[in-house]
Amino acid sequence: MNEYCFCIHSQINLPVILKTMQVIIISGLSGSGKSIALKVLEDSGYYCVDNLPASLLVVLINHLQTQQHAYVAVAIDMRSGENITVLPWQLKMIDKSIQIKFIFLEARTETLMQRFSETRRRHPLSDKNITLEEAIRREREALATLTGLGHHIDTSSLRPNVLRAFIKDFIADSRSPSQLTLLFQSFGYKHGIPLDADLVFDIRCLPNPFYDPQLKELTGHDPEVIRFMESQPDASKMLRDISSFLGTWLPAYIRDNRAYLTVAIGCTGGQHRSVYFAEKLALHFHDSAHVLVRHRGLAEYKPHYARR
């Protein structure tokens, strides 16, 4: 009898559980760019699942793990209804051996309203009894508890190609050793303060290269603008002061187990001064943390600092 049982069990092909697996969860407000993000991940080799009910996350991950999927991306949002409130609990239930990264996309209400108007799409919470603005507000309130689960990106003033570049940077960062990621982000105040900033520094008080006809069309990447900024004593002093502040408090953020710290540097248009500062700060701190740099005010995404 024992021999027969052994023979039967020896023919069963038990699934091999994948030991290393990375899962990226995408959530956020409707119209904030989740489809773009998911498409970037799909093109990068991730097995993608869209519009998954939050209550099925653990089941899905366990199944895909047995199917040997090393890289998985899942979009979970309000399309699945109030079910999304169980997402934090589901994340806690996932095996600790699986690497989980979370992206939350958001945008200003006026931006979302314009996007829905241009595409003629219906908001998932809209009906004949509430306006689009009210639907967006309800969704923002319902998702408020998710914003602190990981990395969030304000897409209000981002062109699709820039958002794609941001997501590609996130992928590269996710595949690097686990540590705090220090993200320096330049922006223009005329477009509004980024919603995803943890720390904001206003450098509009510094001399503006924009008013020099020879520098007006250039950016903080160009040698002429760099020389202009380096010739300004106040710019050098403010750069030292910001570096000193971050150097003093960065260890505290690391001790707090922060995965991301976004430092936003703002000037008027996000073209000259803030770009220069973001690049200089990124270079200064590239040995202290995993550093990324982004420029919200530039049409093209071109990190120039020396990466680790």
Give descriptors for this structure.
2 domains, 308 residues, 5-stranded parallel sheet, 10 helices, Rossmann fold, globular, 4-stranded parallel sheet, alpha/beta, disordered N terminus
What does the model show?
With 308 residues, the protein is α/β, with parallel strands linked by helices. It has two domains: 17-175, Rossmann fold (3-Layer(aba) Sandwich); 180-308, no CATH class. 38% of the residues lie in helices and 18% in strands. The protein is built from ten helices and nine strands. It has helices at residues 2-10, 34-43, 57-66, 87-93, 109-119, 132-142, 160-174, 223-230, 233-255, 273-284; strands at residues 21-28, 47-49, 71-75, 98-106, 151-154, 181-188, 199-202, 260-267, 290-295. The chain has a five-stranded parallel sheet with strand order 2-3-1-4-5, with helices on both faces. α3 (57-66) links the parallel β2 and β3 (71-75). α5 packs across α6 (132-142). The longest helix is centred in the C-terminal third of the chain and has 23 residues, at 233-255. The chain is globular and about 60 Å long. The protein starts with a helix and ends in a 13-residue tail after the last strand. Residues 1-14 have low confidence and may be disordered.
